[in-house]
Structure to design on (621 residues):
């Protein structure tokens, strides 16, 4: 396990970052910190994909000097997945932020537990 | 290729584009477009289902003329087409049953937005049902989440926004895990198409390589989808989201959105991992235990609830537990029971939500049990429908709930080691179900002399009453003529493999 971990240190870092983001999204009570956690979590996945998609010594799959051998280029699909994933995560972040703004203008706090307590007090 | 093979693609695109069109239409036109789209998709799914039943084999549809390892694919079998048809029926009835309430619940200027969200939800559900590509599935899972979040928060009160935030947080945790699991799976196999992944997974298992990453990837995908479909103990967001959103939203969310994710999980089990490989992992035991716990704790929370809509919402937690218990048995019979329960729960839960709104309307809008006393006399149709739904949930013969409980028990008897636990919990859960549903039914049929509330007759709300009758008929059809449906599910699952 030791040498594999060293060789794949990028993936290991991505996994650790994923856990950090996941825990933040789950356990923070502040909504903005939750959203930061969400972004850390998603970015960790993109790091993982980018790490896996890169092959040392090969270049981006754009034919420039007439080299058409597949040996010269990396696989473009992981990069494509990262792009799609970024689009998705941008839109959910925007949605979360807009919800946060609504809650903040209503309850003047970003603390989700406090908001729940206020809602209970309202009793509706 | 037969023209009918285009239908899955057409139905996804039609509902996606009608969402865009609705954004520029006035509310009334958007409503008509929405209804027409749901009916059209339903008709197309029916034709597709009949075609697939006559040919007896599933087909794969290339998106964009690229062959297997590179292109994106749609796949349709009996189960997919049947599920799409069923989703359309439930969605149409839920929308029709909640239409009269929409004016009180949503600001008039936002009505067209509501129909956009419903259309988007339909298209993402159809895509989840039909897609053969894992990453496409992930993208549509997110679209599903976003539109479901919109459906929760379109009724602008503090509770719904908070519920929407909680729903988003849990959903995003789930989709993060799903995406990570999917990426690991892609690294291991080098494919995104389900059939290609399955081949590679089979080779990995026989060669004994990369066993740990494989298990991690399967576990991440399963947990992700469990969180998204509100399996116990990930259900904290559910009662508020179902209890305070508009009635159509609650019916659609409880009966369709969570089922879409469960259906994706079934597809992953059969078409990505392989049923036998999935069963040889310990993950099914985890699903089994959490399913059992959900069945009991969901019902206990429902008993303690004093609000009729939140009670129905908590009952969903218990029913989702049933479905996962079926997965956990690890047999074909358990899976068939789970798929049947998806149908039966969807038909019953939306009926209960729609009927409950009729009862609360004639009780001054209050949802507390004490105010609901005698509500069934004031609105006879809703009372009868609620009773029918309750009987189905408890598992009385004639109704669909009985058949799913019967299928679950039959499946449990065949599984050594899990038989006793499943049967005991099924029994306890049925008793608990009976406690809270019968409590409600007795409450609404308790004579009450107060004249402060006005009653409602058939003439006042024809559309609503017709929808309730349709729901009851659907329930009875599922309950009485269950054998052809079970055969169809078996055939569909066989096509998956």
């Amino acid at each position: 396990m030791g040498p594999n971990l060293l060789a794949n240190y990028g993936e290991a870092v991505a996994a650790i970052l994923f856990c950090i983001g996941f825990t933040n999204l789950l356990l923070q009570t502040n909504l903005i910190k939750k959203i930061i956690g969400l972004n850390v979590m998603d970015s960790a996945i993109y790091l993982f994909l980018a790490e896996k998609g890169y092959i040392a010594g090969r270049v981006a799959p754009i034919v420039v000097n007439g080299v058409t051998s597949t040996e010269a280029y990396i696989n473009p699909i992981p990069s494509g997945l990262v792009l799609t994933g970024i689009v998705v995560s941008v839109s959910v972040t925007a949605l979360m932020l807009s919800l946060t703004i609504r809650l903040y203008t209503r309850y003047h706090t970003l603390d989700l537990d406090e908001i729940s307590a206020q809602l209970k007090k309202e009793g509706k | 290729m037969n023209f009918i093979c285009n239908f899955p693609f057409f139905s996804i695109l039609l509902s996606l584009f009608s969402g865009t069109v609705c954004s520029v239409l006035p509310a009334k036109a958007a409503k008509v477009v929405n209804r027409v789209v749901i009916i059209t998709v339903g008709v197309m799914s029916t034709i597709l289902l009949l075609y697939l039943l006559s040919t007896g084999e599933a087909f794969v549809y290339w998106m964009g003329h690229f062959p297997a390892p590179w292109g994106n694919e749609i796949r349709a079998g009996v189960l997919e087409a049947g599920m799409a048809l069923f989703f359309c029926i439930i969605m149409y009835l839920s929308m029709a049953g909640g239409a009269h309430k929409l004016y009180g619940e949503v600001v008039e200027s936002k009505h067209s937005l509501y129909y956009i969200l419903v259309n988007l939800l339909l298209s993402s559900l159809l895509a989840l049902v039909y897609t053969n590509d894992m990453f496409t599935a992930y993208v549509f899972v997110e679209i599903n989440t976003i539109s479901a979040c919109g459906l929760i928060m379109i009724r602008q009160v503090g509770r719904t926004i908070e519920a929407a935030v909680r729903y988003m947080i849990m959903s995003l945790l789930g989709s993060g895990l799903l995406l990570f699991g999917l990426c690991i799976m892609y690294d291991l196999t080098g494919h995104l198409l389900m059939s290609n992944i399955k081949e590679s997974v089979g080779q990995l298992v026989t060669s004994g390589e990369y066993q740990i990453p494989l298990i991690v990837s399967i576990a991440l995908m399963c947990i992700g989808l469990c969180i998204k479909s509100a399996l116990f103990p990930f259900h904290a967001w559910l009662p508020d989201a179902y209890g305070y959103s508009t009635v159509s939203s609650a019916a659609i969310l409880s009966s369709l959105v969570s089922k879409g994710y469960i259906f994706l999980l079934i597809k992953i089990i059969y078409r990505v991992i392989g049923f036998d490989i999935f069963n040889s992992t310990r993950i099914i035991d985890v699903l089994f235990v959490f399913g059992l716990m959900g069945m009991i704790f969901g019902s206990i929370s429902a008993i303690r609830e004093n609000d009729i809509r939140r009670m129905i919402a908590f009952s969903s937690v218990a029913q989702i537990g049933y479905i996962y218990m079926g997965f956990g048995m690890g047999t074909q019979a358990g899976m068939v029971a789970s798929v049947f329960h998806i149908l039966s729960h969807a038909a019953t839960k939306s009926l209960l939500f729609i009927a409950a709104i009729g009862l609360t309307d004639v009780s001054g809008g209050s949802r507390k049990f004490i105010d609901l006393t005698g509500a069934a006399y004031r609105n006879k149709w809703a009372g009868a429908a609620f009773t029918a739904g309750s009987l189905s949930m408890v598992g009385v013969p004639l109704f669909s709930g009985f058949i799913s409980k019967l299928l679950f028990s039959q499946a449990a008897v065949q599984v050594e080691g899990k038989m006793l636990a499943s049967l005991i919990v099924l029994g306890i859960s049925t008793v608990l179900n009976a406690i809270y549903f019968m409590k409600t039914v007795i409450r609404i049929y308790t004579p009450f002399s107060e004249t402060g509330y006005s009653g409602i007759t058939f003439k006042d709300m024809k559309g609503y009453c017709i929808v309730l009758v349709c729901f009851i008929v659907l329930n009875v059809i599922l309950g009485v003529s269950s054998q052809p449906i079970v055969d169809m599910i078996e055939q569909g699952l066989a096509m998956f493999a």
